[in-house]
Design a protein that fits this description.
elongated; alpha/beta; binds 1-O-pyrophosphono-5-O-phosphono-alpha-D-ribofuranose; 7 helices; 5-stranded mixed β-sheet
């Protein structure tokens, strides 16, 4: 890519946008107004700096866009990075936003038997299988993209592995958290090849994000 083209930063849509707004401002990145409008159907946004543009994509896709060079930088949850383990990504800054946890949950009061095989509904089959394998249990994962919390009540699987923030979704669906698998936060991610070819520009942006986090 010629250095005359803008750098693209991929960011996840959804609730993280509110936390991202002050962080971007402290990093001196000022997106066009519609970027923070969740109802806007646009996917690509300009910023005040003609050399920086933003794309707004699904959280799991941020890592894919950056790993394959569709964007040079991204803001990505550590859950996604753990699940995919992309070798082409460099993760220099913990942005200290998007805090939540990845947890195992079951129906409230569920009497778990000692099992060598369990069924789990999740968006995170790799993390889930590793977690259960460490306990000598084989996890059969039913991969869903959302609404995992429905799975136990409709007989799909007794367990779910999903993100928990306030815990309200679990409670509203009659579930209880039984183990925290890992704590999550958002990371700044960089495409390694782009970091080599556009080192000065990207290193400058990394520094701006680092300062923005420290100033928070
Ligand atoms: C996430 C997650 C849970 C919920 C947990 O979904 O998958 O369903 O948030 O949050 P809580 O503990 O505060 O209730 P999100 O709302 O981001 O939507 P998604 O299902 O599209 O991922």
């Amino acid at each position: 890519m010629s250095s005359a083209q803008p750098l693209t930063i991929a960011v996840p849509k959804g609730r993280i946008l509110q936390e991202l707004q002050p962080l971007l401002a402290r990093a001196q990145i000022f997106p066009e107004e519609s970027f923070f409008d969740e109802h806007s159907r646009a996917l690509k946004f300009a910023t005040k700096d003609p050399m920086i543009s933003l794309i707004r994509v699904r959280s799991f896709d941020v890592a894919t866009f950056v790993a394959f060079g569709g964007a040079q930088l991204g803001v990505c949850g550590s859950d996604v990075l753990m699940e995919h383990d992309y070798a082409d990504l460099y993760m220099p800054v913990d942005l200290n936003i998007g805090h939540c946890r990845l947890s195992l949950a079951q129906p409230k009061g569920y009497a778990a038997k000692s099992e060598s095989h369990v069924r789990v509904a999740t968006k995170y089959p790799n993390i889930t299988q590793d977690y259960f394998a460490q306990k000598g249990i084989q996890a059969e994962c039913i991969k869903l993209s959302g609404a995992m919390e429905l799975a136990p009540s409709i007989g799909l699987a007794p367990y779910i592995v999903d993100l928990v923030s306030s815990g309200k979704t679990l409670i509203a669906n009659g579930l209880e958290e039984v183990a925290v698998i890992t704590q999550i936060s958002s990371r700044l991610i960089i495409n390694r090849a782009a970091f080599k070819t556009r080192n000065q520009e990207i290193a400058g942006l990394i520094e701006r994000f680092r300062e923005a986090v420290n100033a928070a």
